[in-house]
From TrEMBL:
Protein name in the entry: DUF1738 domain-containing protein
Occurrences of domain Polyvalent protein metallopeptidase (ranges): 220-328
Residue ranges occupied by any N-terminal domain in the UniProt entry: 19-168
Entry-linked InterPro entries: ArdC_N, MPTase-PolyVal
Top-rank taxon, per record: Bacteria
Pfam families hit by this protein: ArdcN (PF08401), MPTase-PolyVal (PF18818)
Length: 604
């Protein structure tokens, strides 16, 4: 049975032709799996996630097809570019858009980069969005629309449009001969690093944290039993325990399969209904789960085999691919959405782990550098794909980082440092790459968020301290800046206690001592014991005010507490004038003590 192509009267569109190519690749892959379904979806030799020359990742649907295409063609690098992009490697543009041919150190023209004769391109889908104000019909950029609040977004209509672009793998060009340095750099960046998932105690930190903290869209329960499944009725994933799997890759692959199913519930991507399980309709859902989990696994360097229960659907998938042209499109779109949800969450958790265990912070703490010499990085410009970054892209691709750094400095307008975007390390997000830095500036590139450049000014810690002293600590200050503020208070507190111990003498005669807790950023109040301060009250430190002002504020709050106020009590009509006289609690206690003494002397 051949693939039945049904087109409109005008013939196949660019989208139709692209889907034909995709279907043919999928049919070939499933045929191979049918002959040996123990094979992985992507072989051991499959490379890293596909990206373009600027380092921007392709989305899940394109990535899936480009990896299958690279595997079939035997390409060595997962990097693709359009024909115009290849030609553009021979020139550089200035800020006015004028082109000049690239030359070597001797002023000689560099060898021309070109697509090899006879090479054929491969299609990829790029979705663009038109955003229109419902009332004024004015258009705004999609990047600006994404920054709006949910309420503001209601004013606009968003129209997606899928466009087809033709790309070539870098191995289809003569880059290796014409630009050996650039090719070698791409080759180095494309090395696949597989996680260590061997042994009984294998660990995938992001997955482990997600399960432990209940960080997925539904609960994931590990039980000592033999089934792995997603229950749409109970909205939960049930997995055998880790020790029941032969290795870590098997555990993670099966988990990703069930996580993909869980994205399809009615409350999420609305692919599956309770009645769908076990039906013919579920065959397509099983393919979505297989392709989605294979993509996610490949993203993190893990091989994904066809799940045993899914092997029975191979023939059904082939028939659907051959009979329905729409089957490949709807399936791939669902795979893209499902895998995107999982990857986004795992990357978010990985970033949390990286931030908690910041290598840069550990190095700084161990280095013993003084606060005057230690540098901080202040973001002064953040360039996204909507900005004009062609010159920076060109310098980046050619490895001319010295000039890239010089161009980046031009974006610094000399404004005062923003404590919200001030950090100890230039690396703040997963995927950040420090391209270059000198004594004054650094340039960071990230290819996973649309290809962004962040220009950072380097300042000494003393300048950060001066900003805090002058303007206080803003609520949105970075975590690193808040650490500096805490250190400043701790130092002031040490200086204060060297001269006088801050204590509070309350109205009722209690004496309380105060300490600053740097870990919690609180002023702790209590009584001194032989093992330290027995904390009774804790007050959040307000960095908008001085240490003295904070201490005064704490004293005022304590004074309002009834347990520390000067108490009074009624002890009767001592003058026999019919008026109840009030004496202090201390006087009453003294009277009781006197009575007790009399009681003892009488020998009762």
């Amino acid at each position: 049975m051949t693939y039945k192509k049904k087109y409109n009267a005008d013939g196949p569109s660019a989208e139709d032709r692209a889907l034909d190519r995709f279907a043919e690749l999928m049919i070939e892959k499933i045929n191979n799996l049918q002959s040996d379904w123990k094979k992985p979806w992507f072989t051991e030799g499959t490379m890293k996630w596909p990206k373009n020359l600027s380092g921007r990742d392709y989305n899940g649907m394109n990535s899936l097809m480009l990896m299958l295409y690279a595997e079939k063609q035997g390409y060595k690098l997962p990097v693709y570019c359009t024909f115009d992009r290849v030609i553009g490697l021979n020139y550089q543009k200035d800020k006015q858009g004028n082109r000049t041919a690239l030359k070597d150190e001797n002023g000689e023209p560099l060898p021309q980069v070109s697509v090899k004769k006879g090479e054929k391109s491969f299609p990829v889908f790029i979705t663009t969005f038109t955003v229109v104000d419902k009332d004024t019909k004015a258009k705004i950029k999609y990047d600006d629309y994404k920054k709006l609040s949910d309420g503001e977004k209601q004013r606009y209509s968003v129209y997606p449009k899928m466009q087809v672009y033709s790309v070539f793998n870098v191995d289809q060009t003569n880059m290796k001969e014409a630009r050996p340095e650039l090719y070698a750099k791409i080759e180095e960046e494309s090395q696949l690093v597989k996680p260590e998932l061997n042994g009984e105690s294998f660990s995938f930190p992001a997955v482990d944290k997600m399960i432990e903290d209940n960080g997925w869209v539904c609960p994931i329960e590990l039980q000592h039993q033999d089934r792995a499944y997603y229950s749409i009725l109970n909205d939960r994933i049930v997995m055998p325990e880790k020790a029941q799997f032969v290795d870590g890759e098997s555990f993670v692959s099966v988990l990703f399969h069930e996580m993909t199913h869980s994205t399809g519930s009615e409350s999420r991507l609305n692919r599956i209904k309770p009645s769908a399980f076990g039906s013919e309709e579920y065959a397509r859902e099983e393919l979505v789960a297989e392709l989605g989990s294979a993509l996610v696994a490949q993203r993190y360097g893990i091989s994904k085999n066809v799940k045993d229960e899914s092997a029975a659907y191979l023939k059904s998938w082939l028939n659907s691919l051959k009979e329905s042209p729409d089957f490949i499109k709807t399936t791939l779109l669902d795979v893209k959405r499902a895998s995107g949800m999982i990857i986004e969450q795992l990357d978010k958790i990985t970033q949390q782990i990286d931030n908690e265990n910041s290598v840069q912070q550990n190095v700084t703490e161990k280095s013993g550098e003084s606060k005057d010499r230690r540098n901080f990085y202040v973001s002064v410009a953040y360039l996204q794909n909507a900005d004009d970054t062609q010159l920076l892209d060109r310098l980046h691709e050619n490895g001319d980082y010295d000039r890239l750094l010089q161009e980046a400095k031009e974006y610094d307008q000399g404004d005062a440092i923003d404590l919200e975007h001030t950090f100890q390390s230039p690396i703040q997000n997963r995927g950040d790459d420090l391209l270059d830095e000198d004594d004054y500036y650094a340039v960071v590139y990230n290819n996973s968020v649309g290809g962004t450049y962040e220009i950072m000014r380097k300042v000494p810690e003393q300048e950060v301290r001066c900003m805090i002293e002058r303007y206080g600590l803003p609520n949105n200050a970075s975590k690193d800046v808040k650490v500096v503020a805490k250190n400043m208070i701790a130092e002031q507190f040490v200086e204060m206690t060297a001269k006088r111990m801050p204590i509070f003498e309350m109205d009722n005669g209690n004496v309380l001592q105060v300490q600053y807790n740097k870990e919690t950023d609180h002023l702790d109040v209590g009584t001194v014991t032989n093992i330290g301060l027995a904390v009774k009250h804790s007050f959040a430190y307000d960095h908008s005010f001085s240490l003295d002002a904070n201490l005064q504020g704490v004293h005022e709050q304590l004074s309002e507490m009834s347990e520390y106020q000067h108490e009074k009590a009624d002890i009767g009509d001592v003058d026999n004038d019919g008026i109840m006289d009030e004496v202090t609690r201390d006087e009453k206690l003294l009277a009781e003590e006197v009575e007790e003494e009399v009681y003892c002397r009488r020998g009762r």
